[in-house]
Write a structure and sequence with these properties.
Elements: H1 14-26, H2 35-46, H3 56-69, H4 76-86, H5 88-107, E1 114-122, E2 125-135, H6 136-140, H7 142-207, H8 213-248, H9 276-283, H10 285-306, E3 313-322, E4 328-335, H11 344-409, H12 415-451
Antiparallel strand pairs: 1-2, 2-3, 3-4
Helix pairs in contact: 2-7, 3-4, 4-7, 5-7, 7-8, 7-10, 7-12, 9-11, 10-11, 11-12
């Protein structure tokens, strides 16, 4: 009976096997799992480091720090720190880093040998097949494959940092939205109270015959609008606060965190980035990731060319033993013959993938420069608008209110005109709060556009 020959490694190939064992021993996991670089990249762009929580002790330390931060009203920086410590979605994304490192280490190790054993018996004869098969081609291409794996691992580090920076930007935007929404509820409540007084006064004057029906209905309509506006503002404050809560990963009693009563003041001067487009191309994580991807793809193309005519090369030693017969020894080499496919399809596919990566990198770079210009324009516009409200609109409304109070005291205007002026003054203040919120959100978007990634949300 003819059976599959047994393959066992021979003395002839022992140096090759020894080299594979040596290279496999060189491929090992790093102590920090590549996370020190992730933390450094994140801190450079957000001012806050991140930490990978691998054990229960790490989580307990993080929870203690979160509890300490929640004792005081949140700031934008403390909110980002809490998110880095407490957002489980971010920790889940960090798991991709461990997966990438495992792939990198595996690329630096020769695939495990294949062991097979077979036993056939019949007619009093016993035939045994034994095989141990090594992938020799895997050993020859291991340095290139390991280098590609290393580049992929570096790219995964950039991606982990990008995820952290994106979360920080989301937290800052949600923080400013929540603080401004909380502040606006107070002002919309004042408008409602003014409308309530005006509506009640108009109703009584109508009953006394001192007011016409049309004027009274106008006051009633304003009261109805103010009531609806106040209800929407209260819900918006709740929605913005809950959105921030989700980013922070808070639950239970933690959701009772406190926010400051008002937004931070407008800075004296707007930021003026120096060589903003150059900084973006050097620092933006999406640009760096695109470059790494292109480099890894180029290296993969080189690997494909190296194995264009040899796809499977396996070598081993064989012996066969049968009952009552002497053992047969020898060796076998398997080589895929390029009779139908000379590797042109793989080469063409790799080249197409490489050009795809090159064009994507160029697109990311072009978009990065454009987004920086757009973000800076939005930043300057928001600054000028908030400054206009602060220096022109709010002071003017205040002077008008003071003048109307003097006229009311002199019995030159009615109480309704005074109430109308009060509503308009509150509207000016709410406009400033909204403009100030837009500025801080634009500031966060600008910083993200400069060093993180796309600020489009």
């Amino acid at each position: 009976m003819t059976n599959k020959p047994i393959r066992l490694i021979t003395v002839k190939f022992l140096p090759l096997a020894a080299a594979s064992v040596f290279l496999a021993g060189c491929a090992s996991f790093s102590e920090d799992g590549g996370f020190n670089n992730v933390s450094a990249l994140t801190k450079e762009r957000t001012g806050q480091p991140v930490a990978l929580q691998r054990a229960d002790s790490d989580r307990r330390v993080a929870q203690d720090r979160v509890a300490e931060l929640l004792k005081q009203p949140l700031t934008a920086d403390s909110a980002v720190e809490i998110a880095f410590l407490n957002n489980r979605g971010l920790q889940a994304k960090f798991g991709e880093l461990g997966i990438s490192e495992a792939d990198y280490v595996r690329a630096g190790r020769l695939p495990n040998p294949v062991l097979s054993f077979g036993r056939l018996s019949g007619g009093g004869d016993v035939e045994i097949d034994r095989a141990v098969l090594f992938n020799v081609l895997g050993l020859l291409t291991m340095p290139i494959a390991s280098h590609v794996g290393q580049q992929r691992f570096e790219q995964a580090q950039y991606q982990a940092a990008s995820d952290a920076v994106a979360l920080a930007a989301d937290v800052r935007r949600a923080y400013f939205d929540a603080v401004s929404a909380q502040e606006l509820v107070k002002y919309y409540g004042q408008v409602k109270e003014t409308a309530d007084v005006s509506n009640e006064l108009a109703r009584r004057m109508l009953q006394a015959g001192n007011f016409n029906k049309l004027t009274q209905m106008r006051e009633q309509a304003f009261y109805a609008d103010a009531t609806a506006q106040f209800a929407r503002a209260r819900h918006q404050a709740t929605a913005d606060r809950e959105r921030l809560t989700r980013f922070l990963g808070l639950f239970g009693d933690q959701v009772n965190f406190s926010l400051p009563e008002r937004l931070p003041d407008l800075p004296k001067q707007p930021t003026e980035p120096v060589d903003a487009e150059r900084v973006a191309l050097e620092k933006r994580l999406d640009v760096l990731m695109a470059r790494r991807d292109t480099e890894a793809t180029a290296k993969s193309l080189g690997l494909t060319k190296a194995t264009r005519f040899v796809n499977v090369l396996e070598v081993g030693y064989q012996n066969k033993s049968e009952t009552g017969r002497p053992r047969s020894n020898g060796y076998e080499i398997e080589l895929e013959l390029p009779l139908f496919d000379f590797g042109s399809t793989r080469a063409a596919r790799a080249e197409a993938i490489y050009m795809q990566a090159v064009n994507r990198t160029a697109e990311v770079a072009v978009n990065a420069r454009s987004e920086v210009r757009e973000s800076y324009s939005a930043y300057l516009t928001a600054y000028e608008l908030a400054k206009h409200y602060r220096d022109e609109v709010v002071p003017l409304r205040k002077r008008i209110s003071e003048e109307n109070m003097l006229r009311y005291n002199g019995m030159l205007i009615s109480v309704f005109e005074l109430l109308t002026d009060a509503r308009e003054q509150v509207a000016g203040v709410t406009g400033y709060v909204q403009a100030l919120r837009d500025f801080w959100v634009a500031d966060s978007n600008l910083q993200t556009a400069l060093t993180g990634g796309s600020s489009a949300h």
